[in-house]
Amino acid sequence: MDLYQEIILEHSKRPLHAGLREPFNAQVHHVNPTCGDEVTLRVQLSGQGRSAVIADVSYSALGCSISTAATSVLADEVIGHSVKEALTSFAAMRKMLTSKGADPGDEDEIGDGVAFAGVSKYPARVKCALLGWMAFTDALTQSGVDVGEISAAHTSASPSPETVLNNATASNTIPSRTMEDS
Amino acid sequence: MSTMSDVAVGAAFTAAESAAIRGDFAILSRTVRGGKPLVYLDSGATSQKPRQMLDTERAFYEQHNAAVHRGAHQLAEEATDAYEGARATVARFIGAQTREVVFTKNATEALNLVAYTFSNAGATGAMDGVDPALAAKFALGEGDEIVITEMEHHSNLVPWQELARRTGATLRWIGVTDDGRLKLGDLDTVITDRTKVVAFTHVSNVLGTINPVDVIVERARAVGALTVLDACQSVPHLAVDVVDLGVDFVAFSGHKMFGPLGIGVLWGRYDLLKAMPPFLTGGSMIEVVQMEATTYADPPQRFEAGVPMAAQAVGLAAACDYLTDLGMARVTAQEHALTQALLAGLAQRPWVRVVGPLDGKDRSGAVAFVVDGIHPHDVGQILDDAGVAVRVGHHCAWPLHRRMNLTATTRASFAAYNTLAEVDALLTALDRVPVVFGTVI
């Protein structure tokens, strides 16, 4: 099977930029209700709006190899880049993941993210790969960035209403969002 | 399918019998993931369907279809007879009176029906004309308690949480031991004079634990509480007699017992059903309707608003007949043999931990496990690649997983059509998991 590329296994065993760090502009907590996977993610920006630079993405994740590796790749791809570039990467990543195997991904846009092309053939796993990205775009929104039409609400692998839960864990409490109803 | 009357009751199926049974389920001969034979071990989520059930449903639509309990034409009569005949068959299958069987959309609706009774009963006039002693059983408010268990499926958990929220009653629960049994030692402190209803599962959909219904019912009765049994994971696998169980209500779904999707059953003691206000209202469930007010039909029609799912009902009855022909004792024996073989196989793999009772005693054929260091989604993916279909996740029992300090598990669950060869296929596929993820050298 072409799902578990070596690069995915590597990222899942040794996730990059893992751990929750200070300082941060926003912290979000996202849950995948179908499996119970969770990610708490912090974003620290330098500057304003889409030209702001992503100074840090730190996270604490509990999940499968796909979601852990995807969050690791996400952090590695966006840290040091502008919000605009990060949102372009997200759009490319989402396009590939929802292509049902048709889009192999562009390494220039998503880097190691191309290793996740195989995930798009397994609809049940697309939400695993998007969990971290969902949290990331939400954290950008919470940081005051207008993420526009590529908001988290439209990234679910299958159309379903978003559920808003109360977040009891975050110090700066923000409503957390779940990706998909079970 | 061959007759099985010449084989001793309570024996697992012979190879020839298993082959005949599998022949009734067309889907079991298909392949998945690039030509691999399907090994379906997810019957706890939903079972596959035998040709006999499908033929019955198709025959209803092709020959008798009409709106039940409406119209005076021949088809309407035939459809009504088929629907009510199905009710009688389902009733016989669980040892009930026909008038005590209510068809619902699914087991979740059946459980909600009972839960909503307690809050609806508090509305002005809802219990007019009902024996005060019976009406008092459904009166729920602050100071009263609802008891469930920590191993409930969300469908027998959330409705009771919501009921507590609506009424001000307190939700309490019986805990679970490390080896996946109910903490029966706490029964007398959890179920008290304040308890109005005890809702619990017959068989855990995760742990496979078969709960001692009699012990819980005895305590609930001693304090005058009503009992509600979630039998979704028992009716397809064990001979269930609702009268012997001694509970007041039983809920189960059709689709987990070779029946169609879209139908569930609520069984209730008739005196209780008769005292209960309706849940969903509208057509079919009425006696007299005037612009100002409506009186309601007797049970079971009182709880079946709208045109009923007649095709699903006749399909479910055909599924009951199919299980009866197999013999429930033999179904139980077959699944027990598979469970024992799987538990033995998993015990030989030190990197696997079974979540639930490790022995076969009071245990059904749902076997949940975790693989050291590997997320259940990844385990399930490797099994799927070998054609082995299992469930991964929290199986709609999130609090139970939390209790066991787990986020998720991998679950294999059996039905009558499964074989020892499929247990071997699962174990063989499972051995690839630590290899792929490099956790075992």
Write up what this structure looks like.
The complex is a heterodimer of chains A (182) and B (441). By secondary structure, chain A is an alpha+beta fold. Chain A has 5 helices and 5 strands, in the order αβββααααββ. Chain A has a 3-stranded antiparallel sheet, with helices on one face. In chain A, strands 4-5 form a two-stranded antiparallel ribbon. The C terminus of chain A is likely disordered. In chain B, strands 4-10-9-8-7-5-6 form a 7-stranded mixed sheet, sandwiched between helices. In chain B, helix 3 packs parallel to helix 11 and helix 12 runs parallel beside helix 15. Chain B starts with 14 loop residues before the first helix and ends in a 5-residue tail after the last helix. At the A-B interface, loops of A face helix 13 of B.
Q: Estimate the mean pLDDT confidence of chain A.
A: 82
Largest interface: A-B, 19 and 19 residues
In CATH, what is the class of the largest domain in chain B? Alpha Beta
Strand content of chain B: 15-25%
Whole-number count of domains of chain A: 1
Low-confidence stretches of chain A: 151-182
Label the overall shape of chain A.
globular
Low-confidence stretches of chain B: 1-8
Count structural domains of chain B. Answer: 2
CATH C-level class of chain A: Alpha Beta
- The tally of beta strands of chain B, per DSSP, is 17
Largest beta sheet: strand ordering of chain B: 4-10-9-8-7-5-6
CATH architecture of the largest domain in chain B: 3-Layer(aba) Sandwich
| Major sheet characteristics of chain A | 3 strands, antiparallel
Q: Give me the number of helical elements of chain A.
A: 5
CATH topology of chain A: Sufe protein. Chain: A
Secondary structure layout:
The complex is a heterodimer of chains A (182) and B (441).
Chain A: H1 6-13, E1 26-32, E2 37-46, E3 53-62, H2 65-78, H3 83-97, H4 107-110, H5 123-142, E4 163-165, E5 176-178
Antiparallel strand pairs in A: 1-2, 2-3, 4-5
Helix pairs in contact in A: 1-2, 2-5, 3-5
Chain B: H1 15-23, E1 31-32, E2 36-37, E3 39-40, H2 51-64, H3 74-93, E4 101-104, H4 107-120, H5 132-137, E5 145-149, H6 158-167, E6 170-174, H7 187-190, E7 195-201, H8 213-222, E8 226-230, H9 242-245, E9 249-253, E10 264-268, H10 270-275, E11 286-289, E12 294-296, H11 310-326, H12 328-347, E13 352-355, E14 366-371, H13 376-385, E15 388-389, E16 391-393, H14 398-403, E17 409-413, H15 420-430, H16 432-436
Parallel strand pairs in B: 3-15, 5-6, 5-7, 7-8, 8-9
Antiparallel strand pairs in B: 1-2, 4-10, 9-10, 11-12, 13-14, 14-17, 16-17
Helix pairs in contact in B: 2-11, 3-11, 4-6, 12-15
